[in-house]
Write a structure and sequence with these properties.
Blueprint lengths: L9 E5 L1 H8 L3 E8 L4 E11 L2 E6 L4 H6 L8 E11 L4 E13 L2 H6 L13 E16 L2
Antiparallel strand pairs: 1-7, 2-3, 2-5, 3-4, 4-7, 5-6, 6-7
């Protein structure tokens, strides 16, 4: 790739509706939270339910313990990031959602979009992140 700045990709902000469209198919994203020892980022399978992200983890997982530490009925602030980057072309996009995550009740689980984790084993702790902030950036050729 030439070092000429005119040949480089351009970075632009993505509007909220386009961010939601990009992440709508679900897949893999990363949950960022404070686990008591500092910032932690864990990849998870997810689905989109309106402007919320639904993901699952193991009941014994560090993330479950950290996200359950809130006041009952309350939410823990987390960030969630999804991206698709093509390193060969140096193009792609990244979407960041921030808001409160809370465990889903049995009733909520039945009425939300299903999410199937890739790893084997029981993932019985379901969470929903209601996004209060959604932002994104796209890297593309001129």
């Amino acid at each position: 790739m030439p070092s000429d700045s005119s040949a480089r990709s351009v970075l632009n902000e993505i509007e909220r509706t386009e961010c939601l469209r990009l992440i709508a198919p679900g897949g893999i994203g990363r949950v960022a939270f404070d686990d008591g020892e500092g910032p932690t980022v864990i990849p998870v399978n997810y689905t989109v339910d309106g402007e919320s992200i639904v993901f699952r983890t193991s009941e014994s997982a560090r993330m479950n313990r950290s996200l359950l530490s809130s006041v009952p009925g309350g939410e823990v602030r987390v960030a969630f990031e999804v991206d698709r980057i093509d390193e060969a072309t140096q193009q792609g996009w990244s979407v960041l959602l921030r808001g409160g995550a809370h465990p889903l009740s049995e009733e909520e689980r039945e009425s939300t979009a299903p999410v199937e984790p890739w790893p084997a084993g029981h993932r019985g702790a379901w969470f929903s992140l209601h996004a209060t902030e959604i932002s994104g950036r796209r890297l593309h050729r001129r």
